[in-house]
Amino acid sequence: MSKLIITAAVTGSVHVPSLSAYLPVTPEEIAADGLAAVRAGAALVHVHARDPKTGKPSADPKLYEEIVKRISAETDAPICITTGGSKEMTVAERARSVMLLEPELASLNTGSMNFAIHPLAAKIKEPKFDWEIPFLQATEDWIFPNTFKTLGEFATFMAKARTKPELEVYDAGMLSNVQFLLGTGVLKAPIHIQFVLGILGGMQASVGNLVFLHESACRMIGEANFTWSLSAAGRAQLPMMATAMGMGGNVRVGLEDNLYLAPKQLAKSSAEQVERIVTIANALSIPVATPAEARQILGLKGADAVGWAKAKSAAE
Question: Of the N and C termini of the chain, which has fewer Cβ atoms inside 10 Å?
Fold first, then answer.
């Protein structure tokens, strides 16, 4: 049995600070949460950045640089930088930090969709910041844009930087987009797919949907041509992770996807969720991958080849 790669997605751009006092906001907090998750058993860390004063999602490359340097100073775990960003960022802003920092992995969202998180606004009675409720409510009328043009641009600069795309698939039609990009040579096999379930506007988190997506990917792309992972938002997170593990897939947990550890019990860190996954894996006799093993399984370029490490070597 292949070893299980656990990714920790530590802050994201969906949740707002008023929803949980434990959501990491500053670069120091985000890096600390990622490092704690690695110590708990995560092999990869997926990062977004936030304005350290307001907690608002940010595209500032300086914040990303501080986060990744803090994480890589204490672990060799591969880091995945988002190109998802938030509804208020342009496509260029979403790509900027990946282009500058050249991480081992970067998210590549594989199609446009209604990405709606406006129901979360009703959960906030006393917002900490005045931007939070309008930010959430505005997603009722927002399309998350990922056109074939931008998919090609993202894939091209990632290939140049030897950054492996983590292909985010929210719906079945996005697999057709991936198949097309492979056929035109924009993407090269083997690829890494992450099925993202549970977002309003995409496929919901159910066993049937996951099985359908996986079987479709095997048929359209070829089972030998991809590795895969699952991200499931909200309360379905842990049960769906167990399903993915039983199917031979990898998993992603963390405060980006779910603020809770159990019903009405907020998770105090992404590490708490990672610990739950490790417990489940141990019970199922599924070995958990180390960062070095995850790097080998996914065919990543190595920690010494990321942009911030190369810049450090050049300066020395």
Answer: C
Handedness of CA 145, 148, 153, 157 (dihedral sign): positive
User: What's the per-residue H, E or C state across 143-188?
Assistant: EECCCHHHHHHHHHHHHHHCCEEEEEECCHHHHHHHHHHHHCCCCC
Domain residue extents for the chain: 6-315
**Exposed e or buried b per residue across 238-261, where buried means at least 16 C-beta atoms within 10 angstroms of its C-beta:** bebbbbbbeeebbbbbbbbbbbbb
Residues 203-222 pLDDT 10s: 999 999 999 999 999 999 99
Is the pTM of the predicted complex or chain greater than 0.85? yes
CA angle (119, 120, 123) in 5-degree steps: 110
Task: Look up the CATH superfamily of 6-315.
Answer: Aldolase class I (3.20.20.70)
